[in-house]
Specification:
The complex is a heterodimer of chains A (296) and B (255). Chain A has 296 residues and is mainly alpha-helical. Chain A has two domains: 39 residues; 219 residues, MetI-like (MetI-like fold), CATH 1.10.3720.10. Chain B is of the alpha/beta class and 255 residues long. Chain B has a single domain, classed as 3-Layer(aba) Sandwich (Rossmann fold). Chain B contains ten helices and ten strands. A six-stranded mixed sheet of chain B has the order 6-7-8-3-9-10, sandwiched between helices. A four-stranded antiparallel sheet of chain B has the order 2-1-4-5, covered by helices on one side. In chain B, helix 7 links the parallel strand 7 and strand 8. The longest helix of chain B is centred in the middle third of the chain and has 14 residues. Chain B starts with 7 loop residues before the first strand and ends in a 5-residue tail after the last helix. The chains are: A mainly alpha (296), B alpha/beta (255).
Amino acid sequence: MKFNRATRRKLFSHGMTVLTGATVVLVLIPLFWIIYESAILGASVFSLGFFTQNIPAPCSPHPGVTCSTNGVGSAIQGTVYLLLLAALWAVPVGLGAAIFAVEYGGERAIARVISMAADVLSGVPSIVAGMFIYALLIVYYPLLVFSVISGSLALGVIMLPIVMRTSEEALRTIPHSVREAALALGISRWKTSVRIILVAAMPGVLTGVLLSIARAAGEAAPLLLLDNGSLHPCMSVDTVCQSLSLTIYLGATSPSQNWVSIAWGAALILVILVLGLSIVSQLVLNRTARKWGQVG
Amino acid sequence: MAIPSVGVKMDVQHLSAFYGEHRAIEDISIPMADREVTAIIGPSGCGKSTLIRCLNRLHETAPKTRVEGSVFLDGDDLYRLDPTVVRRRVGMVFQKPNPFATMSIYNNVSAPLRFNSRPSREVMDQTVLRALKQAALWEEVRDRLDSAATSLSGGQQQRLCIARALAADPEVLLMDEPCSALDPIATSKIEDLISQLKSNYTVIIVTHNMQQAARVSDNTAFLYLGKLIEFGPTEELFERPKEKLTESYITGRFG
């Protein structure tokens, strides 16, 4: 069979459409597989005790012995502490840099330098961030090297560029006319930036904070160096606490069946957390985009 | 320092404004009369918006801009005052309505008070009432002051912006083509409003609509390529223009 040029072109075009469609499926397969797998294996250990009780002794079931799969209470607690402490410093610093870059940096080179620095920082491997905090603390404050505080410093380094860049984007989406409206009323530049522009951009900023938390929640690498896990209840932030991501590492590499199950449970919690944060942040963003569309 | 003439609220003297190296307006001098409407007309790109943005020092908020010359407000040189003080004395309404989308109607109008002087709730209520009445919007929004500003129509949003500017209690009101985004009915409402406002305020309006300038203004300035071609009482300028250029513009031969 012989094709003329036009038919060949059409066939090629159809073929490429099918091929790119196939890659979409390939992208989606891992996502749904991960969700499916962790849902099936993780949900089987879910119970009230799983969220409250501490990690049990490693054990594999054999006749006459049942093993406890409760729980990850201390890991949840540790992860919450880590994320709260990390957000406590990374959010204000990232937000401050974003405000400066957008509201004061303007067209000046310094604004571009800040944004570029944030982009580079977001490309720094998390284990390097961990090593940096490790090296810093071991010189200046060795007692805190292995603690929730040190872990939260490293997680904050990971959150920082995400908070900064998404806040910057959010601030830039507020129309210039709003800034002029405020300035023309005799409202000072600082109040315009913080109480009008930032407030208007708040949903976008919040999205960035949520996404950065989602990203930091799953980080295990820097924690291996710093807040490297404990089987004891989490007592205070200047000591080591268990975290969800390290529970997965611990369980997945363990020969004991109950720890493997616990790892899947912890994985499911993390997946739900990240998925939930992503969905919520999208909803928040969509709602505000509509609002500014109604001006004029 | 030149002494402003009697009855002049805002005296523009030898004003030039730049964007980088580009001179957008050149050596403009216009005495703007107290409690009258001064219209600034001219073809697109002639510098009318740049001129009006120099009168509340908004021009300088854009990057790489510069102003030469002086603008006197009751004898005070604007360029020697704090810009936020200038902008409280000289209010502005923009081409496109720009209410704060995240705020209610009430909060939009009270914004200049809440962010600047922070008076008592009572004073604020009274000011909002006064400003909305002055902007002829009160009857339409009295029952929904807490609704979003974006729930209003375009014409209502523009009157909301006028109310917001008036709430700051300015002496001069600048209007940069305030009707160009509005339909004819909303336009005629704003024009009626301008005629009423001039009993209390000095109004300076930029417009590319010559009929509008003829309808609402007492004095008119005609700008062309950044230069002031002619300035005088509106009737005279439209019926007996002194300059050839003015005549060809108002008779529609270019523009």
